[in-house]
Amino acid sequence: MASRILVPLDGSPVAEKALPCAKMLGRELPAELVLFRAVSIPQEVQEMLVDQQPDDLLPQLLAEANNYLIKVVGEMQDAGLKVQHIVDQGRAAEAIVDCAAKANTELIVMATHGYSSAKRWTRGSVSERVLQSANSPVLMVCAYKHGSDVDLDPSRCRHILVPLDGSAIAEQVLPPVISVAKPMGALVTLLRVSIVHTLGEFMGDFFMPLEGTLRTADKIAGRYLDRVSDRLAEHGVKVSTTVQMGAVAESIVDYAENHQIDLVAMCTHGRTGLGRWILGSVADRVLRAGCIPVLLVRAG
C-alpha cells in the first residue's frame, strides 16, 4: 500500500505530531514521504489588507511554506529517510486530496486535535473533508493525549486492532492492514463485539430462555473471525482473534488500552465518509481515550 505517503503540514506543532508516525512508516515499510503544505489567503484576511494586495502577499507565503518544508525535509533526510516536498496554492482539504491523487500516494498521515467531541473533527474539519474525498486511506494521529495512562509510542507499530462487524464494508480495511502489518511483522487482532450479550444483560431473566442463542452467536462470531484470520494468514500476517461483550465503542477502546495496541484500523461508510458505528463517536472516543493512531479506510 504505502510506497508513497502524503504528510500534510501547516507549519504548526499540532500538524507536526503526525511526523513520528510517518517517519516510522517510511522507515519500516519502507516508503517515500511526501511532505505537503497548502497556502491560501482566507477571505477575512483579504478584507483586512489595506496597503497590500492578496496577489502580492501570496508569493511571500509560498516562499515561507517552501522554506519551512525544506528544513523539515533536511532533518528527515539526515535520519536516512526518502523524502520530497510539495507546496501548492489552495484551500487545505481540497489541495491535500488533489496532491494525494497527483502524487500517487497510497496513504495520508495527518494529525487531529482529538481534544473535543466528535463534532469538532467530523463536521467540516480538514481531516473530515479529506476523509470524505480522498481515495487513499487516512491515518489520523491524535495531537494530544488525554484521559489515559497508556504509554503509546507513535514511532512503533507492533500490534494492530481491526474491529469487524461481519459486513463486507468493514472488511475493506483488510488490504491496507495487510500492506502495513506484513512488512512490519505486526500482530493483527481481529475484534468482533457481541451486542447479543449486552441485550441479554439488559433484559435479565426475560432473556434466560434465549441463553442458547448467546452461545450460538459466540460460535458464529468465532467462526467468522477464523475465516477472516485464515485469509490474512495466507498473506503471511500474524493474526489473533477475540470476541468481546459490551457496547461497541467502549469495547474497542477497552481492548486497545488493555492490550498495548499501536494502531486501530477501521472502515468508514462509503457514502459520506461518516456513518455506522465505525466513525463519529467510536473513532473520536478512540482518539481521545488513548491517543491511539487510527487508520480509516473509506468504503468503496
Characterise the protein shown here.
- The protein is of the alpha/beta class and 300 residues long.
- It contains twelve helices and ten strands.
- Strand 9 (263-268), helix 12 and strand 10 (294-298) form a beta-alpha-beta unit.
- Helix 5 (92-102) packs parallel to helix 7 (126-133) and helix 11 packs parallel to helix 12 (281-290).
- The model is unreliable at 114-124, 147-151, 197-205 and 270-280 (pLDDT under 50).
Provide a quick synopsis of the model:
The protein is α/β, with parallel strands linked by helices and 300 residues long. 44% of the residues lie in helices and 21% in strands.
In the CATH hierarchy, the third-tier topology is known as: Rossmann fold
Percentage beta strand: 15-25%
Radius of gyration over alpha carbons? 21 Å
Quaternary structure of the protein: single chain
**Which parts are unreliable, with pLDDT below 50 for 5 consecutive residues or more?**
114-124, 147-151, 197-205, 270-280
Task: Name the helicity range.
Answer: 40-55%
List keywords for this structure.
single chain; about 300 residues; alpha/beta; Rossmann fold; ten-stranded mixed sheet; 12 helices; 10 strands; about 45% helix; elongated
